[in-house]
Automatic annotation (TrEMBL):
Protein name per the record: Flavin-nucleotide-binding protein
Amino acid sequence: MGKSLVYPKRASNTVNRYNHRATYDLGAIHTIINESAVLHVSFSAGPDNPFPATLPMIGQMGSFEYPSADINEPLDCYLHGYVSSRIMNLARANNDGVGGGENKGLPLCISAAHVDGLVLSLTPNSHSYNYRSAILHGYGQLVTDEAEKHYAMKLVTNSVVANRWEHTRVPPNNAEMASTTILRVRIVDGSGKIRDGGVSDDKKDVEDEEVTGRVWTGVVPVYQVLGEPIAAKGNRVEEVPAHVREFVEAVNEKNRGYAIAAAAK
């Protein structure tokens, strides 16, 4: 097996605190991003606004140029948004980039996090979470090619529910295409951080029988559960389609399995 591809360590993405939990592996970072229902995207709001802006957005890693590229290879991040939103207007104004060259587009930071367990220790200072987090830095440009836009819209739709694009009225009509904007973010660096396992207490507390005799310690697994599908009022299809049922079952099994396994490490 070949060596995993990694993002280069730079000042912007190097993990300093608890760096033994850091990962720069493309596959691990892209997976954390892709499994997040919401991504938080930060950008400069402009010279007249001293505060950076952060938006919750839907996004997914992919490559229109190399559609067969897998999760372990270099990928772009496609973000879905409304045509007149502030981030899309800023990207439109910055399409050529500040520095030119490869750094074309709006500078962005994309972050995601999953909580996988509540780590309950002997003392408050030792409490923690089992978690997976990731950040990406890159330059966002508006997608103008119609074929790439359709690719990205399908990619994002199928990240909500697998194979959903194929089970809807497609392709989108002209009005839908005009009101939707896709931002392609060329990633320049990224990093992840993963904590799993049980409690970690100081030796003096572990050896204190009075404390260990009255304080329960352990991990409460945390995982997202998709509920039973509820039909819309205007729905005319009696049975919940297989692609929805199978997706719900697969996600619930995977999320539960990961959280429990993380607690047991």
